[in-house]
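Title: Prediction job returns without error message
Component: structure pipeline
Severity: low
Priority: P3
Assignee: unassigned

Description:
Job completed but the reporter wants confirmation the result is attached to the right record. Sequence as submitted:
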Amino acid sequence: MDYQKYFNIKNDQPQKQVRWPEARTRPAVADEDGEDHGPGVQAGDRRDGLVYVYDEKIELAVNVALATGRPLLVRGPSGCGKSSLARNVARRMKWRYYEQVITSRTQARDLLWTFDALRRLSDAQAKRLRTEMAYYIEPGVLWWAFDHEGASRRGLPKEVSVENPAADPGVGPKGSGVVVLLDEIDKADPDVPNNLLVPLGSFEFKIRETGEEVVAKRPLLLIITTNDERMLPTAFMRRCVVLELDPPDEDLLIKIAGEHYGPDASNIYRSIAERVMKIAANASGKMTTGKPVSAVAPSTAEYLDTVRACIDLGLSPDQESEWKVVSTATLLKRQTPA
């Protein structure tokens, strides 16, 4: 097979040296104030928020969420760009950005605050127990979003000296507003969305251990993503503005590749996009006819992986034997063994 190799079984002299892939068109490192400083990395899923391709539907949905003060629930298949939307909106608006990936173990209170009862017990046994319960509280992502100063002080009054201020997990400017991403809410237990109804509806909550009232003190855009692996409660859905991302067409895929990798110097963007569309149509046809699906429709992320592999390795979709291996590895992924 004729291509540029990182790994070569015929000799120990590969044509390319293994490196962490560098961003080809844009810097990817930003400081605390949101300013970009030099090239970064672009391996795996991109989460720096520097690249996002909008259409009028997405732009309007974001504006509706901002106008109503409601969370924006973004739904769509895995790899379609749901998570990267939040970071890009934060960059464009020059707002502070926070995120938390939801898992099956996440509880609603984890997003608000946690209480370290074990450390308090240890301090009690060592006879160094703090009188202020706030000392054992760790602010969650929503507390940081609502009230940055209060979170850093763990809810202690301003007149009280704070020995261990909490570490702010956010990035970007600490200015006028904040964007929060709660990623993959459908992974959580069904009680989690219901238990967030008051904090997300009224932008306030109370710390149980201290009685501290936390109220949002700056504009907030909350973006929640779901892969629709589990049905969300009706009451939760009613409190959200919903954006359903459509599968990309051929032209959109080409535009996205251009934003990520620059001009199509190898003349492969459209050729790969055409093949992606054929695979997607085949998978869709099998689903509607009731026949078993051997491969799911490729996502935007998988299209970008394929383009990146072809650029790095000097491959073309016209190389039939090589393309068969590449497409099977990146696009034709079976849900079950053959």
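Comment from assignee: result matches the submitted record. The CA atoms of residues 89 and 179 lie 8 Å apart.
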